[in-house]
Write a structure and sequence with these properties.
single chain, alpha/beta, five-stranded parallel β-sheet, five-stranded mixed β-sheet, 14 helices
């Protein structure tokens, strides 16, 4: 019998029309969007479908839109597909989808919680002052040295996500980020891609955001999960009722260790990983980490039917 993991994407995967096919086809998906919109007083379906893109890409909107899309697809997946996962994880804000899917955070509490998280992220640094970029073709050690070189009195840049071999993300003040990109592009075979994210996530520049977020976390009734959830910032652990608040605070200012997260899944005997959410970004990252797992994703009607055929026979 397959040992299955579910993973949920985060910021950077948003795009106009994400989830639209499933939204039009299935009442379950429409219900989740309606629930989230009612709680948040935001037209999330309109934001995901019509944008405008500049509004969707604002961190305070992106996090909520991706979370809602992830959870809508998860609920549909559980209705349509006969599978019991042994472990879950989410990438950045996708971790909140994993925690909700596992029952660690209640469905009605996660939307205002992530709304507060996104607001604190955006307020920590004005739009245009900070950002993120994916660096392709350098390992984390070499990139850390370049980050130190690019940082000075007018701004700093940090490693913020270790996605896969040769795929690392940096976050920082825009001047330092631009210097870092120039330094990396001077290396043969290295590419740098700015990400559509309006805050420098997962680094010490968001310390104030983490401090402000403490109050919201104290209001959450964390529960024991129905399956294991691996933390972004500490993949050697699993989420528990006791450590959840601390780990979610750490996630704001510490790097996402995605490669280690997938390696932890492999150590648990996982042989099949399913990505639930827009753009199949995590599937592509996992291919760079290991060839030893079956990879599926659900983002539209065709991919849902493929997953149903695989699991339901």
């Amino acid at each position: 019998m397959s040992r299955v993991a579910l993973v949920f994407p985060g910021q950077g995967t948003q795009h106009l029309g994400m989830g639209r096919q499933l939204y039009l086809e299935y009442q379950t998906v429409r219900d989740v969007f309606a629930e989230a919109s009612d709680i948040l007083k935001i037209d999330l379906a309109g934001l995901c479908n019509d944008g405008p893109r500049e509004l969707l890409d604002l961190t305070e909107n992106t996090q909520l839109a991706v979370l809602t899309c992830n959870l809508a697809i998860y609920r549909l997946f559980t209705e349509m597909v006969n599978v019991t996962p042994v472990v879950m994880a989410g990438h950045s804000v996708g971790e909140y989808a994993a925690l909700t899917a596992a029952g660690v955070i209640a469905h009605h509490q996660v939307f205002p919680l992530v709304g507060a998280r996104a607001r604190h992220h955006q307020e920590a640094m004005p739009v245009g002052r900070g950002g993120m970029a994916a660096i392709l073709g350098l390992d984390a050690v070499a990139l850390a040295d370049l980050c130190a070189t690019a940082s000075n009195d007018d701004g700093k840049v940090f490693i913020s996500i270790i996605n896969a071999p040769g795929q690392v993300v940096v976050s920082g003040h825009m001047p330092a980020l631009e210097r870092l990109i120039a330094l990396t592009l001077a290396r043969p075979g290295v590419k740098a891609v700015k990400l559509p994210i309006s805050a420098p996530c997962h680094c010490e520049l968001l310390t104030e955001a983490a401090e402000a977020f403490t109050a919201q976390l104290k209001s959450i009734d964390f529960c024991d999960g129905s399956c294991l959830v691996i933390p972004n910032c500490a993949p050697e652990l699993f989420y528990t009722t006791e450590n959840a608040a601390n780990l979610l605070l750490r996630q704001i200012t510490q790097p996402v260790r995605w490669q280690e997260t997938i390696e932890k899944m492999l150590s648990l005997g996982v042989d099949t990983i399913v990505e639930l959410g827009p753009k199949r970004t995590l599937v592509n990252l996992i291919k760079r980490i290991t060839p030893d797992v079956r990879l599926l994703f659900v983002e539209d009607v065709v991919s849902l039917d493929r997953a149903r055929a695989h699991f339901n026979g």
